[in-house]
Design a protein that fits this description.
- The complex is a heterodimer.
- Chain A is α+β, with helices and mostly antiparallel strands.
- Helices cover 32% and strands 29% of the residues of chain A.
- In chain A, helix 2 (34-55) runs antiparallel to helix 4.
- Chain B has a four-stranded mixed beta sheet.
- In chain B, strand 1 (2-7) and strand 2 (11-20) form a beta hairpin.
- In chain B, helix 1 runs parallel beside helix 2 (57-72).
- Chain B is globular and about 30 Å long.
- Classes of the chains: A alpha+beta, B alpha/beta.
- Chain A binds chain B through residues 13-14, 16-17, 20, 35, 38, 41-42, 45-46, 49, 52-53, 102-105, 107-108, 110-111, 114, and chain B through 19, 21-23, 25, 29, 54-58, 60-62, 64-65, 84-85, 88-89, 92-93.
- The structure holds adenosine-5'-triphosphate (ATP) and magnesium ion.
- Adenosine-5'-triphosphate sits between chains A (46, 50-51, 54-55, 80, 82-85, 91, 96-99, 104-109, 129) and B (57-58, 60-61).
- The site of magnesium ion has 4 residues of chain A, from helix 2.
Chain lengths: 145, 102
């Protein structure tokens, strides 16, 4: 079955928990295992938090979160129209961060990559960033949980 | 996220629980550093993560921040009882090389 949803919300940190919980609820019909559910929540939280702390630093902007499911495959798209990333390859390197002094570890993209099956980032300086992630579920129905 | 603590002669135990993200970490940072400073005589700091139900990379930065604080005060720092979801993110990031799990 095909299903989709789209949310837009302001980049207020209070929405971090809402955004990941919304995706977690949306994917429940796919019978994710507990660990798959937790992986998706973490990956979404990384991308949404990046919009809040980097894209719209010192301002508030709009974040768009879209999800699409086809069978046991989930596609996620999270986008902002903030400052953008000049060098995506560099930004996605483990431990690379532009906010060292704020207790950021530079592991966000590495975690998105590890916790999903595919990560793609497109960005243009001054225009914004879009993060695409794909997660394939093993189908919890055959799971003994 | 909630923060509570217990101290004996040489060890300070800090219990973190709830969801650790950028939103919740702000207040927890201040609370933890206050606890560490007021128990600076302890030579061991144990961060108990049993109550943490969610963590993203903010948690890694948070833990490294407390590691630096503890180092300044010559305290040894350890992590105790992470849930599987927390354990995964801490393993992936290599954090246990800095803060051993006991
Ligand atoms: N949506 C975004 N808009 C603009 N810059 C971004 C965005 N997302 C990431 N970046 C840039 O890419 C860098 C790496 O991001 P990543 O999430 O890996 O680490 P971080 O956010 O700096 O630290 P952590 O996620 O570990 O707290 C950031 O420091 C920032 O410069
Ligand atoms: Mg990040």
């Amino acid at each position: 079955m095909k299903n989709y949803m789209k949310l837009t919300f302001p980049s207020d940190s209070v929405n971090q928990s809402f955004a990941r919980s919304a995706v977690a609820s949306f994917i429940l019909p796919l019978n994710p295992t507990l660990s798959e559910l937790s992986d998706v929540k973490t990956a979404v939280s990384e991308a949404v938090t990046n919009c809040m702390v980097h894209a719209y630093r010192h301002t508030t902007g709009e974040i768009t979160l879209e999800c699409e499911t086809f069978g046991n495959v989930l596609h996620i798209r999270i986008s902002d129209t903030g400052v953008g990333i000049e060098n995506v390859e560099l930004a996605t390197t483990p431990f690379y961060t532009t906010l060292d002094d704020e207790e950021r570890s530079g592991m966000g993209f590495t975690i998105m990559q590890t916790f999903t099956d595919e990560l793609k980032v497109t960005s243009a300086k001054g225009q914004g960033t879009t993060v695409y992630m794909t997660k394939i579920f093993t189908d919890g129905q055959t799971d003994a949980e | 996220m909630t923060v509570s603590a217990k101290a004996n002669d040489n060890s300070l135990y800090i219990y973190l629980s709830g969801e650790m993200d950028e939103h919740s970490a702000r207040a927890a940072r201040i609370r933890c550093d206050d606890l560490i400073e007021s128990n600076a005589a302890c030579c061991r700091l144990i961060l108990n993560l049993a109550g943490i139900r969610f963590m993203d990379s903010t948690g890694i930065g948070f833990l490294i921040g407390r590691y630096k604080k503890a180092k300044l005060l010559c305290m040894q720092i350890f992590i105790e009882n992470p849930e599987p979801c927390t354990d995964k993110i801490l393993s992936v990031s290599g954090l246990y090389a800095l803060i051993p799990k006991i």
